TrEMBL record:
Protein name in UniProt: Alliinase C-terminal domain-containing protein
UniProt KW Transferase keyword: yes
SUPFAM superfamilies: PLP-dependent transferases
The keyword Transferase is assigned to this record: yes
PANTHER family xrefs: BIFUNCTIONAL ASPARTATE AMINOTRANSFERASE AND GLUTAMATE/ASPARTATE-PREPHENATE AMINOTRANSFERASE-RELATED, TRYPTOPHAN AMINOTRANSFERASE-RELATED PROTEIN 1
Alliinase C-terminal domain ranges (all copies): 25-386
Amino acid sequence: DKCSLPSDNDSKEHNHLISSDTLIINLDHGDPTVYESFWSKMGEKCTLVIKGNDLMSYMSDMSRLCWFLEPELEEAIKSLHRVVGNAVVEDRYVVVGTGSTQLYQAVLYALTAPGGGDPVKVVCAAPYYSQYQAETDLLCSGLFKWGGDASAYDKDGAYIEVVTSPNNPDGHIREAVVKSRRGEGKVLYDLAYYWPQYTPITRPADFDIMYFTFSKSTGHAGSRIGWALVKDEEIARKMTRFIELSSIGVSKDSQIRAAKIMGTICDNYQDFESGNSESFFEFAHQLMAKRWKSLREVVEGSEAFSLPKYPKEYCLFHGEYTEAYPAYAWLKSSEGIEDCEKYLREHCKIVGRSGRRFGADPSFVRVSMLSREEAFEQFLKRLLSIKGIKNQN
Ligand code: PMP
């Protein structure tokens, strides 16, 4: 989400998420600082010492397809998915990336190189994650090109559909929407938010190409670690080649840290089952549930906004019916407020991201639910102060 960070001119104002009742609260990007409180409680359990002579080589395991993937990270990723039950890891190649942002580009390359004809269209059903378009067209590639809303796509020939599930910005579970006439479409699953704090885990995802990120699973966005689970060897090989040429691999310091954090979650989970420890996903789920409950109460008492509804489903991880508590609130303004982002900014000094950026209507705004507690409380307080807006007009 970095591209959406405020420009230099704005940054003084946005510097601190919140300073007082009158200052701007920036909830534009999905910075997952909400989880800091959990990790601070873990203390030394997650501390890692890296000596001066550690991790100096470019190489990790040259006998493996993804030669820059640290074996202990691969093991930790597989254990984490087994504990959570959100993805099939057997018979899959793991490709590590500098965030899932790099993996997105690696997949597009792998599915279209060596090219030749017209650039392959990349589509995603609106509302779609605001960065896909810019990332796709950044280098004006001859291999692929952004094609917009997948629901409106009806051309013949090769295309790539991105399925984000649960979706950013609106939190809904999604499936591919383009009807491929001759099997010329490839589908890529961005499962950044398919974790039990955000959505019921109804089955282990079993797609040919899917990726996850450390940023939204545990909240460690700063480590810039993402991983793809890929069935086809040739695709995994091409993705590896892309990462080799764009960054000669992925920071080992970060990989080792990610392995340590994921390992702590798995260990804690076993202790939690025996009643001895706190589970990260339980903690995160309860925290998101609490935030959503408070937000829904405020919005229900308001005439200005509404929120999407999500069905209760049986979550295999929690072992009960649970609701979705998405990472973003996809607020819709009621009639009479045409530009929801502008309205929030002007009336509450809350910066969200306009529906327009997601290929949707400006009556929508996306607001992050992943901020630190203080910013979230201010957000609610300010929404409350404008709840009777229709009557005031
Ligand atoms: N995909 C989706 C749907 C996202 O929301 C994000 C982060 N906002 C990303 C990918 C990129 O995440 P990262 O590069 O931090 O892994």
